[in-house]
Design goal:
Blueprint (H helix, E strand, L loop, with lengths): L7 E6 L4 E7 L17 E7 H15 L5 E7 L8 H13 L7 E6 L1 H13 L6 E5 L2 H7 L4 E6 L2 E8 L4 E5 L8 H18 L1 H15 L3 H21 L14 H11 L6 H18 L5 H13 L11 H8 L11 E7 L2 E6 L2 H10 L7
Parallel strand pairs: 2-9, 3-4, 3-5, 5-6, 6-9
Antiparallel strand pairs: 1-2, 7-8, 10-11
Helix pairs in contact: 2-3, 4-5, 4-7, 5-6, 5-7, 5-9, 6-7, 8-9, 8-11, 9-10, 9-12
């Protein structure tokens, strides 16, 4: 497959699938990114009203030479709709349109659209191809890569899903120009994550280029997306199904998922919860004696500079523990956290409940009487 010289390519190789992540500005309407995909009579673009209104027609036009029919489906917008009822809207569309097992799904949107489209693709006729076309920074650097697909359950985030790899990921950086500032900051949480867990040179780079990233500088975003995808591709290639190493990608997520579930899905953006969760996780790392207080303060400062919350909402300690015991890393009821074992290296450890609650209390808003 030939792509423009300005397009950056990251290769992902897992036991289930080998595919490319294409990164560049203007890819969505270009011809090259859509060549060489599985042949199919029908292509289905799954999106939401906002993103479909911005980019749906352009993607449909780019796909027209490759499919006899291209249809578009709009899902309701927001994390609160990442559920079974919305998932069934995809199945309803596929069945109503007579889609067969060669139909290709195109997930055009952020993490919610990508997760649900991927899960639908994994399930429909026991598996049809799908392509990730992420339009948020968070999806480009994290959720579109690696094959995790899921819906939420009222008692836990992403608890029902499948590992199912896409045929390709197409990251058009031009779509980030229409991203609200709050969404851009949410994506930066997942970019920042890769520094302390795997690459301190990246953390140094983010600190010096954060203003450019928040301003939407295309060159800075291209580097951030490429390096993030390179790190994730290496981890996923070594541990596709999260048997060990891949768990480090969940740095901040144990606390973050508890925030999302405890508040109600959609109150905080996923990246906002992860940003706050990283602040708590690095302070837990310091409390365990793994990193010093100066490093913890440095990371918290960077998270805050990115426009992310670093104080958690008030919630009873017992509720925190209840929610975190539903985390997928928990074993036999024991909560396990991704911690920074040294700058640039992460691991998974248990921690005493009392110490966890102490960190939560120090990093939470005071509870109202």
């Amino acid at each position: 497959m030939e792509v423009q010289s300005t397009t950056r390519t990251v290769h992902v190789a897992t036991p289930q699938q080998r595919y490319d992540i294409l990164i560049g500005a203007g890819l969505l309407g270009a011809a090259a990114p859509w060549q060489g995909l599985p042949a199919a009579d029908h292509g289905v673009i799954v999106s939401n009203a906002t993103v479909d209104g911005l980019y749906g027609a352009a993607l449909a036009a780019a796909l027209a030479p490759h499919h006899r029919r291209v249809t578009r489906l709009q899902l309701p917008e927001g994390e609160q709709y990442k559920d079974w009822a919305t998932l069934n809207l995809i199945f309803d569309h596929l069945l109503a349109e007579g889609c067969d097992r060669r139909t290709v799904l195109y997930a055009l949107g952020g993490g919610v659209v990508g997760d649900m489209s991927g899960f639908a693709a994994a399930c429909y006729m026991r598996g049809v191809p799908f392509v990730q076309v992420p339009t948020t920074l968070l999806a480009q650097v994290d959720s579109s890569v690696g094959g995790k697909t899921a819906v939420n359950h009222p008692r836990g985030k992403n608890m029902i899903g499948a590992f199912y790899q896409p045929a390709r990921v197409v990251c058009d950086l031009a779509t980030l120009a229409t991203l609200p500032a709050r969404e851009l900051s949410a994506g930066l949480a997942e970019v920042i994550k890769y520094g302390p867990i795997a690459d301190m040179a990246l953390m140094d780079w983010i600190e010096s280029h954060l203003d450019a990233l928040r301003a939407g500088d295309v060159d800075a975003l291209a580097h951030a997306v490429q390096r993030s995808c390179e790190i994730k591709a290496a981890v996923v290639g070594a541990d596709e199904r999260e048997a060990g190493l891949r768990a480090i990608l969940n740095f901040g997520h144990t606390f973050g998922h508890a925030i999302e579930s405890g508040l109600g899905y959609g109150q905080w953006l996923h990246g906002e919860a992860v940003g706050c969760g990283m602040a708590m996780a690095v302070e837990l790392s310091a409390a365990l004696g793994l990193v010093d207080a100066a490093f913890a303060a440095r990371l918290v400062r960077l998270i805050e500079r990115a426009g992310l919350p670093v104080r958690a909402p008030a919630m009873a300690g017992s509720r925190w523990l209840e929610l975190m015991r539903l985390d997928k890393k928990a074993q036999a009821g024991e909560i396990r956290f991704v911690v920074i074992e040294s700058p640039g290296r992460a691991g998974v450890r248990a921690a005493p409940d009392a110490l966890v609650l102490e960190v939560i209390a120090g990093r939470s808003e005071p509870r109202r009487p």
